[in-house]
Each structure stands twice: as C-alpha cells, then as structure tokens.
Amino acid sequence: MALPDLGIPRIKCKVDTGARSSALHAFFLEPFEMHGKQCIRFGIHPLQRRTDRECICTADVLDQRIVTDSGGHREQRYVIETTVALGDEAWSAEITLTDRDTMRFRMLLGRTAIRNKFVVNPASSYLVGKPKRDSGG
User: Fold this and answer.
1) Single pTM value for the model
2) What is the pLDDT of residues 10-33, one digit of tens each?
3) DSSP letters for 62-112
4) Among residues 58, 62, 100, 135, which is most buried (max CB within 10 A)?
5) What CATH number did the domain enclosing 15 receive?
6) Which residue, 71, 66, 58, 61, is CA-closest to 21?
7) Chain centroid to CA 3
8) Residue 52 lies in domain
9) Count of structural domains within the chain
10) What is the pLDDT of residue 125?
11) Could you tell me if residue 13 is inside a domain?
C-alpha cells in the first residue's frame, strides 16, 4: 500500500474487516493552524520493526474522534483524509493517527476504507506483490 499524499511510497498494511476505522502509526503528533485550518504534523516509521527511517508528514485535520481499540481501550485520535493506493487502485480514505509501534503492522486498513471497493479473501496475502526483502517492509 502507498500513501502518496503523505510521501509514503510503501507501507505494510493489515486489512482488518473487524476494524471500522483505519489507523496509521504516528510516533509524534504536533497540531498547528495554517491559513485558518487545523493541521497536524506527525512522524511515522514506515518500515516494520525499524525506527531508523522516518517520514515527517503534514495533513489537514478532518476530525477528532474517540476510537475503541480491539482491547477495549478508548482513545481520542486525530482523523485525516488522504489518498491510499493499492495495486492499480487509488481512493480517498479517513485514517486515524495513533502509536502503533508495538503492533505488528504500522497501518490498519479498516472496513470503512474498503467498503464497495474490494472483496477480502482471508486465505490470501500480498495479492498485489510482495515487497523486496532489503526494503525492510
């Protein structure tokens, strides 16, 4: 998966139909205002199990919402809207920002983001190609 508006050419992502919202790992969040709009600057580590590569991203804040994670913990999160690209498809999706550093995947693609776009086959992985091993992704 890619997040081209955020300058992220590839990030390993878990498709999770049990999750309503999508989530992106952010290791710092820095809200600010620009031209009268609420914005957020945040850092992500796009490669699994690695913190030596960072991407600093900026996006407009769409909303702030209380999200309940799979463990039942409630957290207020910033929500952004950005382009997600998977294979030959690209579309706009809402994504919440949270610290996923201890999670297996730096991004979770929830059912709202893929609604009416894809059918999920839980027996398959990497249907649009597996990343090269040296990329760390």
Assistant:
1) 0.86
2) 888 889 888 899 999 999 999 999
3) -EEEEEE-TTS-EEEEEEEEEEEEETTEEEEEEEEEE--TTSS-SEEEEHH
4) 100
5) 2.40.70.10
6) 66
7) 8
8) 4-113
9) 1
10) 81
11) yes
Q: Which of 88, 93, 92, 124 is CA-nearest to residue 108?
A: 93
Task: Give the pLDDT confidence score for residue 133 in this predicted structure.
Answer: 60
Structure tokens at 107: 């991004």
Distance CA(8)–CA(57), nearest Å, equals 9
User: Does 75 map to a domain?
Assistant: yes
CB contact at 8 A, 65 and 76: yes
Q: Is residue 124 part of a domain?
A: no
Q: How far is CA 68 from CA 12, 23, 77, in A?
A: 22, 12, 10
Among all chains, which residue has been given the structure tokens 């914005």? Answer: 39
The per-residue pLDDT for range 83-131, each reduced to its tens digit, is 999 888 999 999 999 988 778 888 999 999 988 888 888 888 877 777 6
Own/partner long-range contacts of 59-67 (Cβ < 8 Å, ≥24 apart):
59/5, 59/6, 61/31, 61/37, 62/94, 63/94, 65/21, 65/96, 67/21, 67/23, 67/96, 67/98
